[in-house]
Amino acid sequence: MRISTPFSLAALGLLGALTNCAASSEKERSTTVVTRAQSVALTTPAAMASAPAAPADTLANAPAAAADAPTVPAVDSTGAARSAPDVRAGVLATEGASAGAPTAREISAERSREKKMTGAEYRQMLATADAALENNPKDAAALLQRAKAKSYLHEYPAAQLDYSAALRYQRNNPDAYYNRGVNHLMMKKYKAASADFAGALRYRPDDKESFFGRGVAKMQMLQYKPAVADFTHAIQIDSAYADAWEYRGISYASFDKMPEARRDLEHATDLNPNAAKSLRRYVGHDGKEPIKVAPMRAPRPTVPRH
């Protein structure tokens, strides 16, 4: 049984987890989607929480790494792949990030911090970046900060211009790729988002949120098997990544791998009780019953003509 339900809502949920671009108010950010604070934070995804977003790359033709990947290898009781491919799989080339670039762990913590900022703080970030760019219009760091501030304030087209400008002056910055990828997701440009997350992984191959963000972009393009591969990479990096377990389970369900879907969604629920919604929706009532297929009408008998 194939689940044909579109994943636009799922992607928005992902964005809430992988992106810092989710709606926010002066006092707190909106949580209209199922967010996983532990697993994603976009600045990177939160994403993207992705992601997520380092993503996005002006490289519209940058290769999406696991596009033709087969099914994911078996996993053990902890969810780690037994003979899983290296986490760099799917990345065409691994190059050095810019000097002094933070580690994946450090950038994940930074994304989490930025997700908690208020609208006033995002506007202050924008003003600070504008002031720096008046002195040096080619300041890649200031361009990136201004782009992120615009994304947080939902000015996605304007943010896109700044992300691309930042990458012109610093092409090996994984954070610019990641965040542009998240921005592309928000603009529903999924192919570009996938390419940008691939760009982020080229320079930071252990960024779980970039794998997660690329997986979400592939889900949106109905590329469920390649999405499974990306979520698996994210789980290899962080076996407690609840969002990755949940979205891999949803992806499995989309191409009839129901035992795998049940396993992943049950584990996601153990890590984050909010995932129980996906377990019920895609596997059945609390995972104890399969989804019932709607009965098909019997064809009407043909009345022979005399």
What is the element layout, followed by pairings?
Layout: H1 8-18, H2 104-115, H3 119-135, H4 140-152, H5 156-169, H6 174-186, H7 190-203, H8 208-220, H9 224-237, H10 242-254, H11 258-271, H12 276-282
Task: Give an overview in words.
By secondary structure, the protein is mainly α. It has a domain of 182 residues: Alpha Horseshoe (Serine Threonine Protein Phosphatase 5, Tetratricopeptide repeat), CATH 1.25.40.10. 51% of the residues lie in helices and 0% in strands. The protein has twelve helices and no strands. The chain is elongated and about 60 Å long. InterPro entries: TPR-like_helical_dom_sf, TPR_rpt, Ycf3.
The CATH first-level class of the domain at 10-70 and 102-222 comes to Mainly Alpha
Low-confidence stretches: 1-12, 19-94, 290-296
Q: Might you state the CATH topology name of the domain at 10-70 and 102-222?
A: Serine Threonine Protein Phosphatase 5, Tetratricopeptide repeat
Total strands: the figure is 0
Q: End-to-end span in angstroms?
A: 41 Å
Helicity range: 40-55%
Order of helices and strands: HHHHHHHHHHHH
InterPro entries: TPR-like_helical_dom_sf, TPR_rpt, Ycf3
GO cellular component, one term: cell outer membrane
Signal peptide: 1-22
Keywords: Repeat, Signal, TPR repeat
